[in-house]
Amino acid sequence: MSVTRSERRPRGELNRVLVVDDEADIRELIDLTLARMGLAAECAGSVGEAKAALAAGDFQLCLTDMRLPDGEGLEIVRYIAENHPRLPVAVITAWGSAENAVAALKAGAFDYLSKPVGLEQLRALIRSALRLPGNGAENDALRALTGESASMQQVRAMIEKMARSQAPIYISGESGSGKELAARLIHARSARSAGPFVPVNCGAIPENLMESEFFGYRKGAFTGADSDRDGFFQAASGGTLFLDEVADLPLAMQVKLLRAIQEKRVRKVGCVTEEPVDLRIICATHRNLRERVDQGSFRQDLYYRLNVIELRMPPLRERMEDIAPLVDSILNKLCGEAHPRLSPAAIKALQLYSFPGNVRELENILERATALCAGELIEPDDLHLEPEEGAGSDLQGRGSETLDDYLNRLERQAILEALQKTEGNRTAAARLLGVTFRSLRYRLERLGIE
User: Fold this and answer.
1) Any idea where the domains of the chain sit in the sequence?
2) Which residues on neighbouring strands pair with residue 32, listed in sequence order?
3) In the predicted model, is pLDDT for residue 10 greater than 60?
4) Out of 185-189, 212-216, 262-266, 431-435, which region has the weakest mean confidence (pLDDT)?
5) Contact 101, 74 (CB under 8 A)
6) CA-CA to 254 of 20 to 30 Å: which in 29, 159, 205, 442?
7) Residue 2's pLDDT band (boundaries 50, 70, 90)?
8) Same fold across 5-129 and 403-447
9) Is the distance from CB of 297 to CB of 250 less than 8 angstroms?
10) CA distance 308 to 289
11) Residue 259: exposure state from Cβ atoms within 10 A (0-12, 13-18, ≥19)
């Protein structure tokens, strides 16, 4: 095993970092940086040595190179994800090797660094990793996503996993389904929770102002620039930048955004030098981003950079069992505990409605009903639900869905119900659904069900 002076330090129970790299100068650089931060390093030069070290002791962080004499760093990432799920691991990649970085993040890596390793970025990564909350932390914040349906339980479980990573996240879902709330919860549960959460509506910024709004500008860069100003990237430093409606970004801005994400550096308008930024990117849109790529209106390389991990927010019509608890939660927020009640008929009317505007529309309906109802009981007529096209037919509740979306929703609902009944046993769920296990596995992958 490669021996360095750090391996001869007394082993403490806290603040130990495993450094895996076959280059002695890189190990020495990281070792010295860790020592100045009051941390102990143990170094390994291969995949085999790293696994032996992991089996022999506890660590709070692992830093591994991607290319090792007896394998790849991805093997260590997967080994840690399977055997030490609470241990954050970051990878060191060759400069410009975006594919390796994305593959590592998808495999479960916490973050990545590019060679040559910058000390400022290395320190920021280490500080971020060692602030990660444990799995036993309180999860009260997650209860803000009201509902105990199978799909919402899956969303909460995904948020818990995503919060422990630094990988970019793409949140998909219809308008009003809670995409920003999910992004805020991921931030609140992450190591960056003490930093800012900066939400940006990409569709609301004029195209000629986008670069200066995102990256900032220097005094005198253009008419009206009478002082230096930071952009969204600088404002989110140390925290999370949430790009809502990212599909609305023009192609010219997509190129600049891609470079900023890859290099973790931005250049202010009117400035000749770049400055490093330390933040996490979460993006969302109600549009189908894959279709936008196929149409040529969204860059494929940016899509793969942003869509390292996808979180799908289910529309309300896919989780009608959550209507009653959602109603109670919303009325408490609007009126306090002494709020009006909904009659069983009113609850039933809501459960039969397709909610094209999702939870946001439900909030509007209840706010209007509480303002207009005469007594303490809200009846169906007080809800003033919009009449739906095709009411009374077999397709009631489809709203504006395409046929493919409608069939996928029914298939997803049937699979989730079967998995819930079998407590997650896929073999039993396949039998219950009358399909083969291989067919069920294919359907789970196609529908993005974890």
Assistant:
1) 5-129, 146-312, 316-383, 403-447
2) none
3) no
4) 431-435
5) no
6) 159
7) very low
8) no
9) no
10) 13
11) middle
pLDDT 10s digits, 79-118: 998 888 888 898 887 755 667 777 788 788 888 887 777 7
CB 42 within 8 A of CB 56: no
Cis peptide before 315 (omega within 30 of 0): no
362 vs 188: CA distance, rounded Å: 25
Distance CA 175, CA 435 (A): 34
CA distance 100 to 35: 28
Q: Does domain 316-383 have CATH number 3.40.30.10?
A: no
CB 331 within 8 A of CB 370: yes
Question: Hey, how many other C-beta atoms are within 10 angstroms of the C-beta on 37?
Answer: 14
Q: Which fold has domain 5-129?
A: Rossmann fold (3.40.50)
What is d(CA 314, CA 312) in angstroms, rounded to the nearest whole number? 6
Mean pLDDT of 382-411: 63
Each residue of 203-243: pLDDT tens digit?
Answer: 888 888 899 999 999 888 888 888 888 899 999 988 999 99
For domain 403-447, give the CATH number. 1.10.10
Mean pLDDT for 308-323 is: 91
Residue that wins the pLDDT comparison between 373 and 141: 373
Q: Where are the alpha helices (DSSP H) in 108-264?
A: 119-129, 150-163, 179-188, 210-215, 232-235, 251-263
Name which of 62, 148, 72, 139 is nearest 103 in CA terms.
72
Which of 126, 73, 60 is CA-nearest to residue 103? 73
Residue identified by tokens 């590592």 is 104
The answer to whether residues 87 and 60 touch, using CB atoms and an 8 Å cutoff, is yes
Determine the average pLDDT of the residues in 73-83.
89
Q: What is the pLDDT of residue 282?
A: 96
Select from 103, 44, 98, 95 the least CA-distant residue to 68. 44
Give the CA distances from residue 96 to residues 27, 101, 253, in Å, rounded to whole numbers and listed in that order: 21, 9, 20
Task: Give 146-312's CATH code, choosing from 3.40.50.800, 3.40.50.300, 3.20.20.80, 1.25.40.10.
Answer: 3.40.50.300
pTM, 2 dp: 0.64
